[in-house]
Every structure is written in C-alpha cells, then in structure tokens.
Amino acid sequence: MEKTERVFRETLPELLVKIESAKAVAPTNHEFDKRKKQEFALTNSFLKGEITSQEYESREAELEKLHGALEFSTLPEFSRALKAIGFPKELLEEILAHENAHMNRIEAYGITGTYLVQFYKKLTSDTKSINIHPEVSYGFPIGTTEVEKRRILKEIIEAPEDLSYYDKMQLGIK
Ligand SMILES: [Zn+2]
User: Fold this and answer.
1) Does pTM surpass 0.85?
2) Which residue of 20, 45, 124, 170 is most buried, as measured by CB atoms within 10 A?
3) Sign of CA dihedral 41, 46, 52, 56
4) In angstroms, what is the span from residue 97 Cα to ligand 1's centroid?
C-alpha cells in the first residue's frame, strides 16, 4: 500500500473504504506534529535564504512520509470526501475556501496541484479520536529559478485571508 492513497472517481462506498483504511494506518498526533515541525522548519529556512532550493528539495524528499493520507485531484472530490468524513457544513466551507485560496495561487503559476487529507489519531487517556489535516500539494515546474521558487512558495502560503497555524509556522511568524 502506498503511503498516500490517490482517490479518483471512486463510488461513495469505495471512497468510504479508502477513508477507513487511511484512518486505520494514521500516525498519532505526536508523530504528525513532529513530522510537520520538521517540514515547516525546512520551508521556513528556505524562505529565509538559509538553504538553497536544491538543499530544500533534497532534504524534504528525505523526510519520512506518513501513512494515512488521501490525495484528490479536484475540489469537488476533496469536498465530497470531507463530507463523507463527517465535517459539519460550516467548517467544511471554511476548509474548502482556505485550501482553494492556496490552490488558486498555485494554478495562477500554471502549476498542477492536488488536495490532501492527512488523518492522525488523537490519543488521550480517555478518548481515541481521529483528526484530519487538510493541505495542498504541488511541485515547481522544471526551470523555475531559486529566486522564483522562494517568491512563489511564499505567495502560495500567504494566499488565504485567514492563515492557519501551520501557514504561520512556515512563514516563521508563529
Ligand atoms: Zn493554509
């Protein structure tokens, strides 16, 4: 099984199976936080010019990939999955608007991106709940210069009106 499962035009029952499979192999919130902090420290360090894009990309590729993620090509499929996961309408619309703001900026640069849902288990002494972290994923076109990469990355992260905790961490303002 791939660490990130691609979802593409599955029927609803098939989608629900993929959601349950991803939940079953989801990392704990501790593992998720640790991994995200590494990733965001790296992004921040690249944005500040402390490392080159080559170092940034090779070190990012070396970071351990987490199990329990689903990937979607389109906004309607991403939306359908969030609904199937059981998000209340208001929160769902907030997530869609936020991630779509990132995606619009990505597409403005002619880059094809995807939407991701990373599941993780929140373990406390009396509960065992599943949380999700939504995000967008993309790569830079071949030939993008170092300076352009830094600018594009920053613009994509800064795109939503209300920045998330993780957006702020990447920008180094958290
Ligand atoms: Zn964001």
Assistant:
1) yes
2) 170
3) positive
4) 10
